[in-house]
Amino acid sequence: MAGLVLFLVVITVALAVWRSVSRRAVHVHDGEGHPLVPGMALGARAIGIAAGLLVLLLILTTSIRVVPVGHALVIFNTVTKSFRLGRQGITFVPPFISVTQDYDLRRLEYTMSGVSGEGRKSDIDDSLWSPTQEGLQVGIDLTIWHHLDLERLIAIHQKIGPDYEEKIIRPAVRSVIRLVISEYAVMDVYSSKRALIQDEINRKTKALIEKDGFIVDEVVLRDVRFTPEFTKAIEAKQIAQQSAEQMRYTLEKEQKEAERKVIEAQGRANAIQIINKALAQNPNYIKYLYVDKLSDKISVIISDQNTIMDLKGVLGERGR
């Protein structure tokens, strides 16, 4: 856009100069009214100036490049067959003999997901499906954050090119995922060892691709997917576990109730033993308890065929 604006400006200026020179030029005509050479020469000179300015403009627009912040420009000279880097800001590129490629050096995101609208390939199921230790298939949704090593950018451009994510990043991550997941049981992936698996994926991914100049900042597991059959099996297992937990709770409750009753019965038996021992040492004590529980209206009782007890006397003595 800037080059087009400059081109239009130069064309406008050239036309203005040509018109000005044409007006000021002294035109000499012959007897028949035809212009002679001096006027024609001045007009040709103005056209030559405009053409020169146009060529200069084209050179400027093709040799001066603005590199965005966080980017770098790989410049290849087709004559000397050499490479150099243009850093962010204004950089000079030899016109007509240079081939350039812009690279983003900032942290980039590459997401592989099975959710529609997510990831680099949002129109397909891009989950990474891999067999576990038991041979069951699990799908991994992940994001890898990475950036380029500026010092190795020219080598990356020579050996791989700007589509390095599809050539290097994606295949490397897919390979690491299959290698790591195959070492774990499906329940490890499902729950307990997910953080450990993510750390191992990070470590192996970095070891695989950083030697080529690709710096891995982090690999994050976004989601773990299972086949519909396995999902139903997990749900059934969870329901069974909940039922087992409920049954275990009921059994523990009943066992504790039985233990309580045993302890209660043992306590009663011990109490009876203590009472029997006390009665053996003092037989008349039970008679006292018997009389103490009788109604106040009863004054005499026959304890056996030979004994008559005067309760009023007993009670009177007790009252005193």
Short description:
With 320 residues, the protein is α+β, with helices and mostly antiparallel strands. The chain has 9 helices and 11 strands.
What would you say this structure looks like, in words?
The chain is an alpha+beta fold and 320 residues long. The chain folds into four domains: 1-65; 68-105, no CATH class; 108-226, 2-Layer Sandwich (Tetrahydropterin Synthase, Chain A); 284-319, no CATH class. The chain is 53% helix and 22% strand. The longest helix is centred in the C-terminal third of the chain and has 54 residues, at 228-281. It is rod-shaped, with a radius of gyration of 51 Å.
Largest beta sheet, briefly? 4 strands, antiparallel
**Quick one: how many beta strands?**
11
Following the backbone from N to C, one meets helices and strands in this order, namely HHEEEEEEEEHHHHEHHEEH
Q: What's the CATH first level of the largest domain?
A: Alpha Beta
Task: Report the average pLDDT across residues.
Answer: 78
Low-confidence stretches: none
Estimated helix fraction: 40-55%
**CATH fold annotation of the largest domain:** Tetrahydropterin Synthase, Chain A
Per DSSP, the total helix count is: 9
Structural class computed from helices and strand pairing: alpha+beta
The total tally of domains equals 4
Radius of gyration, Cα only, in angstroms? 51 Å
